[in-house]
Predict the 3D structure of the following.
Amino acid sequence: MSGVIDPTQSEHMSSNCYPLDRPAREPDASRFDKSSSAEQQLVDLRSAAILRLASESDCNLLLIMPKVDFGIISQPVNEVFLFPGEAILVSTDGPTSTSARIASRSLIVGLQRQRLEPHAPDLDETFMSPIPANTLALRLLSHYVESLRGLQALAEPSLLSIAASHVHDLVALMVVTACRAYAIVNGEGVRSRRLDAIKADIVKNIQQPDLSVAAVALRHAVTSRHVQKLFAADGTTFTEFVLGNRLPMARRALTNPNLIDKNISTIAFEVGFNDVSYFNRSFRRLYGMSPSKLRALSRGEPTLAGA
C-alpha cells in the first residue's frame, strides 16, 4: 500500500467505534423530519455526481458520506440509516440494486475493490454497515475527499493516481479500524450471526432446485466469495451444507412407509436435486449404498452385494 499510514497498526484505531451489525436506526424525529428535509433527494447511484478515482468500469464500490443531513441507503433486503459524518460502503457488482436518499452536499466516491482487498481482508464485512463518524480514518478521509472535489489538478493523470492511492489507503485503514473495533467487543459475533442467517436461508429454501451460492449472496447483499469464505471458516463448504440438509430428507422419504411407492427420481427432485445421477452419487458417498438399496432394505427385500 502506498502512503505512510499502516492499517495494521492498532494505535490508529478509534476506541469508541460501535458495532457494525447494529440494527437500522430510525432518525430521531426531534432532530429532523424524514419526510420534509429540504436538502434530501433520491439519488440514482448510476448517474450521481461521483468522485471517481478510476474509470467508471473499474469502480465497483461506492463510499457514501452524508455531510449535513441523515441518509437512507436501501437494498432489496436491507435498509440503513446514516447520520451526518458517518459513511457506508456498497458494492456495485452483481444485480443487487442500491438506492440512496441523501442531501445534495453528500460525498460519493467510486473505489476499486481490488485495491482494497489486499490490505482489508474483511472488506465484505463492512458492506451496508455504517462506519462511525468518530472513526479517525473516516474523519481524515472526509476532509481529504472534500478538498478534492472540483480540483482541476485531478485532470492531470499523475496527480489523480496519487490522490487515488491516498484515498484507497484511508478507506483500507477505515475498514480495518471498524472491523477490529467490533471484533474486540464481540469477537466473531458478526461473522457468526451472518453465517447463521445464511444457513437459515438455505434451510428455508433447501427444496428449491435453483438454490445457489449466488442466489443466497444476492439475498444477503454480500458477494458469493464472501459466503464461501464464511463456510470455509466454519470448516465446510456451501455445497456440503446443502447436501447435508438435502440427503437426510431424501433418506427419510425413502424409508417412509407412506412413500414406499414414490419414484426415487421424484424424491430427488422434491428435495431440491435437479440431476438424478448427481443425487445417486452423493447419496452413495454419504450413506455407503445407493438410494435403491436403502429402499429395498426398508421394504425387507433382498439386495445385491455392492448395490
